[in-house]
Amino acid sequence: MGRTITNVYSRSGNLRSTTDALGHTTSYDYDLRGQLRSVKDANGKVTGFDYDDNGNVTSVTDALGNVTTYTYNTNGDKLTETRQMTVANGQVRELLTTWTYDENGQMKTMTDAENHTTTYEYDKLGHQTAVIDALQHKTEYKYDRSVGCNDLRR
């Protein structure tokens, strides 16, 4: 016996609602620019979204009131993500993730909320050649002109 999920779309193609096989409906609301503004789950819990003038998400407020904010550079690349979370004792914990980019706009580093940094390396053609994780484990990528990435080494 199959399970049916029903999706309803607006005339502009935006997903308006999803109803699962148990009849639980999640609804989606958009602004005039077609940007998702809120999601209401089957329990009536709402997650809200805010945007800058370039259409980048600047904040997300989840159903529990936890706020995640984002900043971007002039190219629209994400620079920071700050998550504010209420923990068990009621205190608010702030978790910061940061990104840096090279002069070509390629991600150079990502530092997570625990201050673990991942580094990315590229060749002259812009192909990613290596990822170095916080423990300094290096994954290398080798390219062949005819097939693209053809070798992965750890």
Automatic annotation (TrEMBL):
Residues 23-145 form the Teneurin-like YD-shell domain. Keywords: Repeat. Pfam families: TEN_YD-shell (PF25023). Coiled coil: none annotated. This is Teneurin-like YD-shell domain-containing protein.
